[in-house]
């Protein structure tokens, strides 16, 4: 049962990483244009160099 | 030579014509918004952005495909109007939006807030649920206590953060000495937390941390769905409002300057071009023209306007340019004064209680009494505070309106989504429920059942010679009757006659010389004929008797089908219009509507609807004009087409986005099914409670049973709602 001492903190940490990641995407307006973002990735316009 | 030109920083040809003071302002970056209804793929995004970013003066432009909109950061001298032809050349349909009216959509704080609370609650409930699974599968002694303590450590802060909306709502309800659905929710959450902490401290077997946090999660999901539906409707309604950019041309010392309508003052001289809408109430100072008042009064016949004539905001100038002296601006205009009437009419409708509120009113006291009774019963039976409190908490958790909180939002979200795809925008949360109760439908005529554009009816009565002359005269005018005549004659293959000296006399008609004879097309009195009933334009050829061209109002697409379907459904259909008896009667006959009222004033319309409501009928009002606004608010539920005045759209619960009326009977059907689903969902939730509550009262409910009953009922309710899609 000692293994619980590692496993529970690990699982909680991993969950928290997911939660913080989600909160970051919400805060940085990544859900404002879901249709457009899924299409933009298909454009080959900035394939050779990043958009300035 | 160049030194004589005024120095101008304008980068576009349109701005050179603008007055100097606009350029003298410090150049602050402007934010422009364009609506792009035609874009659909990554090629369109790249194309529009390339065009806009290549335009001089634009610092950045970004397309939002979800909203079909482009937001542009540009220098102050870039006008959105100048961008439209550039985009049209590149093949993209674009419309200017008023960025001021869109502000609320951008700062969508409330939605983001709710989403974060939902995420935190979801994270916490998943972890606590996993810990609880180990307890249910047999963890004992120190391990169980440790799991309970960890659960407590996760649940307490998570609930403190995510359940805040419920705490706030419950508190405000209690302060008003009322009970809403949030009061039992908060009581259940708090009681569950207190007893669980107590149990954990005494290393007891049962803790309800998982139930408390799962409850919060499911209820927040319901709230979020509800919010999303309303936000989508609000954003679409805002876009409709933003398409009408409030702008006017003010005359200062004989020079025209473009200003925002908000900056106009009483006494200002304003120039209104043909086709433009009056931004203010005023008096005609200069010019002759005709005015289209159909949106305000429902009359189809244009009214003659000359100096001294009073005009009111919302009227459309048809033929000649007019100079208006403002007598009332902004909130003082007749358009805005109508809002007061609307507010009075609306107070009647706010009495409507939604199905969910009615259920909560029955439900909340029942739950509290049941929980209190089981506490009392067990306390008197065992004299053990701990057992009694435990059982009371179990009863509260199991009866908690989890499914009830999801039942209504899940169904309204599904139904609104379905109607939105059919071109209907549900603006009000309870509009669907009210729509389902409708048994009487009242239609307005002009602009609602009719398209507001005339149709020539007696083309065959005239000789080829007259038609050729009439076509030549009609072609140069933008008057709606002339346009209809041109279109009909062109379709019949008529070629225009050769005329000389063609002039348009604003307010009267057009005249010219044809083979040495004076020919005129226009008003009866001007052409030399007596006025006739109905919508008529007269053609006068010198030496001949004047000939009449008669018009009727063209029906809106789907009007016949919609009325026929409503009558077939057994609804009572009425026609109410401010137009003349002659015109209304003709239309009623054509659509087989037996009950009609003509020449109705706005107050008459509202009074008649109130009368119908007092007879116990549920009236659906469909209208578009300012004269319908009070009637729209007085009705049980109301629909207006997207072409309606802003005031009418605000007053109505549902906006028709297309030009077709056919979705109306379908919407009634969808609303009917939606309400049936809501009732079914309430029944499902009741069945779960009937099974689980006796177990809880008998003290047999373990946290496992509570979790199962709650999750299972929430999921069944959501799935049942999704069947509506």
Task: Summarize the topology.
The complex is a heterodimer of chains A (52) and B (725).
Chain A: H1 4-27, H2 34-40
Chain B: H1 13-16, H2 20-24, E1 30-35, H3 42-53, E2 58-64, E3 69-74, H4 80-89, E4 95-97, H5 103-106, H6 109-136, H7 141-162, H8 164-175, H9 182-201, H10 209-242, E5 247-252, E6 255-260, E7 269-272, E8 281-286, E9 289-292, H11 294-297, E10 303-305, E11 310-311, E12 316-317, E13 322-328, H12 334-349, H13 355-382, H14 385-399, H15 402-421, E14 424-426, H16 431-436, E15 440-444, H17 445-449, E16 450-456, H18 464-475, H19 480-491, E17 500-505, E18 509-514, E19 517-522, H20 524-527, E20 535-541, E21 547-555, H21 559-568, E22 572-576, H22 581-590, E23 595-597, H23 602-614, E24 619-622, H24 629-634, E25 637-641, H25 646-651, E26 654-656, H26 663-697, H27 703-722
Parallel strand pairs in B: 15-22, 15-24, 22-23, 24-25, 25-26
Antiparallel strand pairs in B: 1-3, 1-4, 2-3, 5-6, 5-7, 7-13, 8-11, 8-13, 9-10, 9-12, 14-26, 16-21, 17-18, 18-19, 19-20, 20-21
